[in-house]
Amino acid sequence: MGNSGLKQHYETASKTGVLQISNHKLKEIPEEVFTLAENLRNLDLSKNKITHVPEDLSMFKFLKQLNLSTNMIQVLPESLANLKKLELLNVSFNSLASLPKSITTLSNLKQVYLNDNKFKVFPKELIGLNNIEVVNLSNNKITEIPKGMSKFYAMELNVSQNEISVLSDDLHEAPRLKILRLEENCLSLDVITPSLLRDSKIHTINVDGNLFEPKQLASLEGYNEYTERYTAMKKKMF
Questions:
Q1: pTM tops 0.85
Q2: Model confidence pLDDT, tens digit, residues 127-163
Q3: For 106-113, which contacts have Cβ atoms below 8 Å and span 24 or more sequence positions?
């Protein structure tokens, strides 16, 4: 399983805590990677041909960033729960359709990239994670945003390029949501409720490529309140 060409990578990682072995055509995670478990803070195994992530992933208990993007992974192990310090999880461009239930215990998780996978259902495991900031679920097959969003704490949610036709009636209660990307879905204008525009904290909502023209938002109740938040955000930037 070992790869002599990676020896230098392992030696460097033992000193720096950062291991990057992307684009090496690996079909599995090399045994040598697990011997570094106590050292690693950042593990990048992106752009390989990995199909299976073993339960031994639990050994990386000091890991803060895990990048498994652009592989052939269908399932993540429940042992992901042991990565208590994990702040960034990137598993984009794989074949995932669900998340392990244990991910709900990762209280330090801030950024989750699940774009370009095979999700048909919004992963409710992300609801209730207190420190989450960014969730990218773009380019999947999700059909609706579920109820329970009053406990969805991300500041930015990207669900563009899905098949969404339904938004939960409590989406406006998401306590920190400021950027909502809904481009290229199946939304009709009546799904954008007055409460979403008027009562939420959202200052940027992107709806290009749906079943209505973005300029039609201006006709909806609550649009003035939305534009006030957008203007205030722009002023803060300059």
A1: yes
A2: 999 999 999 999 999 999 999 999 999 999 999 999 9
A3: 106/80, 106/81, 107/131, 108/84, 110/134, 111/87, 112/88, 112/136, 113/69, 113/89
